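Contributing new records

If you add data, match the layout below exactly. Sequence lines come first and carry their own label; structure lines follow with theirs. Keep one chain per record. Anything else will be rejected by the validation script.
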Amino acid sequence: MVPSSRTPLRPDRLRALNLPSGVEVGLDEWGRPTWVVESDGESADRRTGGPMPTPPSSAGPTVRQGGAVGEWGTAEEAGRRVEEVVEIWVVQDEWWRSPIHRRYVEVVLEGGAHVVLFEDLTTGEWFMQMP
């Protein structure tokens, strides 16, 4: 057993890591992600290894399944292409209080960045986080 260092706890210095950020995801005919666009407008440099283009309007992207992106271009111009789908899994948990129903997809984005996307199966919203 390790002896106590008697150092006081400092919960005010704790910060959450790997918080997910909202994204728009283009899907192929089988429901697999083909490209990702950040919808919150903040830089993706530290999360994905490079900047993601942001839409010219502050309204955010209007991405549709099949590759169409609202009024400001194609999927390739608006976000990052998914090079590989590594793994897909579903989590259904905490059914006794606040149910969690999510579909997770680990992908490799263009440039080699590994990220985990998940879809909230209750709301249909997509999020991105680092693995």
